[in-house]
Amino acid sequence: MSSFEVLKRSQVHVWWDLKENLPRLTASNSEPCFRVRLSPPGDARPLVGHYYKFVFRVIETYFGGDPPFPRRKIALVNKVPYPDLAEEVVIDGQVAGHLLYDLRSERWRFKPLYAGAEEALRNRKGYYAIVDLPRLSRGYVVKKDSVVEANLPEGDEYVTIGTKSGDFYGVGAMLRNRRIYVLKAWRARPRAWLSRDPDWSTAVLRNREYLLAKEAEAVSFIREVAEKYRLPVFVSLSGGKDSLVTLHLAVKALGNEKVKALFNNTGLEFEETVEYARRIADYYGVELIEADAGDNFWRALPVMGPPARDYRWCCKVTKFSTISRAVKKFFPEGALSLVGQRKYESSARALSPRIWRNYWLPGVVAASPVHDWSAMDIWLYIFMERLPVNKLYYYGFDRLGCWLCPASEMGELDLLRIVKPGLYDKWKSYLESYAQMNGLGEEWVKFGLWRWVRPPKDIQRICVSQVQARRGARYDRHASGNTVEYRLHNPSVRIIEEKVRNLWHTLNKPLEIESVQVTGNAVALRFKREATASELELVDRVLIRSYFCVECLECSNWCPTKSISIDSENGGIKVNESTCIHCGTCNYKCPVVEYTFKHLEMLKPQPQTRTTAS
To answer: InterPro entries annotated for this entry (predicted)?
Structure first.
């Protein structure tokens, strides 16, 4: 089953009250309602704050002034599939159009659709064309002689299309010779704008009974799971809305004396988010445990290169390693972690159970009280309880976390440019320098190709160049007989013989080293016999850990005898040879090794699918 199919099956249903002109989180038996037609999974959220103004500025730019549809106090946005960031704008329960970030032109655009497009055409607002055709269909090219009335753009803008009869509507893009390519078409249907203009407080009041029921179920769930496992409880606090609600529910269920908050400061959080996490813990009177990754990311970056969606070394270095140490320190006998994970956020989370164990934190039972909550449930509950939400949401950020996350769309990074230009410039400067050094070209930065090792097809169609640079620890290896020679490129640790000899102790039944010779950035290992292919892989692992270590200490987290520590004199790590039991586990838990090997595998040519004629 594809990700889209999974999300479609997890569709959120948002209803609209025709009388009150506001969203209902469940269908009303007493008031006339209709279901809002949202793109899957339909996890819409309120359009509020500075982002509300930003969205309407983009809309006004398209229309050259006020839009033809009303500007309500209550409006929603809902993410839709697109090569980059795109959101449905919902007014009076109807989709007025799409706000989207155009990768080619690097600008925000508005595409009128459905109720918004029809109203624009009726009022002759924006760019439009009335055509003398019996119908419209997707993919059809409207020729110049079929247009009976129009206001067509000179540049690249969307055009609202309608048949002369009024039976069909559509939206298109301009082609040469004043032709219009129909991107989407639909049959006309009765539509109307509603009369009332309520605010969000009224929406909360009308949904109060539903929200209290959601709260009661979540509180009951927390008490049941706490009683079942009888472990210390902490809330994984991210600084976002979902973990805020989870903390609020946990305190309601168990009391603040039985709840702690764990915040992972990756070193890539917004300054506001770090301050917010500390303030929220104080607000609820709970102990805050702060797992701090420090400069792990920036220390690893020269070795690993930029992270990618299919090359997420950053999570191991800035999250898993630091959280694991904090959990082992504060919860040595295990713990119950309450997390703000919702099934509508991704296909993986849609398939995740409500209670699970984390592979990276074996002693921790994780549970999500808000697993079945939609974004609208979360936001209206925040409004109802008047919870102090992170202000960054009001600038359009849908998820708060690492500000340069490769999972971000370029539109989200453009919001970063607007809100935090210093951070944006810092990252862009690095990417431009990296691209220049590796001969990657301007497109690699412009289209955000750094976000993948293997870009998806919709991105590939936009880009001319598909050049990729090797990421991870860079080295050349030459094996001849009993000798294996390495040339190391940009190592992070001082290259000395003692380093590799020290880490060699981690191996179980290793090859015996006869000699180690270091010359500049070259290391030659001579063994007492020739290494097999599998043994050469182990040698690679030890060499990478010896000279490309980024000091994240993930290996130390897995060491059963606590034999690994930072080598303050030479950099990297060192192994206590008297306590090491040579289990070799650390050589398979190093993020630098793991992702270097993964990247080398991904760079191999992919097998071509052959089609056999029948």
So the answer is: 4Fe4S_Fe-S-bd (IPR017896), 4Fe4S_Fe_S_CS (IPR017900), PAPS_reduct_dom (IPR002500), Rossmann-like_a/b/a_fold (IPR014729), Sulfate_adenylyltrnsfr_sub2 (IPR050128)
